[in-house]
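G., the chain you wanted modeled:
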Amino acid sequence: MIPGFRVLQRQRRVSGELVEQFRTLPVANVSDSMHRMSAAGPRLAMMHRDGQLAGPALTVKTRPGDNLMLHKAIDMAEPGDVIVVDAGGDLTNSLMGELMLA
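Predicted structure as tokens:
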């Protein structure tokens, strides 16, 4: 294992029924009800096509410009998962391109 990298296995998964209940709720209402403790903020950018997006989050934290752990998350993701990446807010490097999105 490379020092500094940790991959945690998922301990539990959100049920499909709960995802469906949240699918129709406005994101702002969900954030407000959680006292904005887990909101990602206005710089969160979606990479999916138009439409709604709801599902269990598979989270990635990496250093700016390094997409190694994003590749690992793509390998670990299950159908319906939403990959959420925190790369330190750097906007000068892209972590994901069209090939990875496909």
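The helical segments are 16-23, 27-33, 68-76, 98-101.

Shout if anything looks off.
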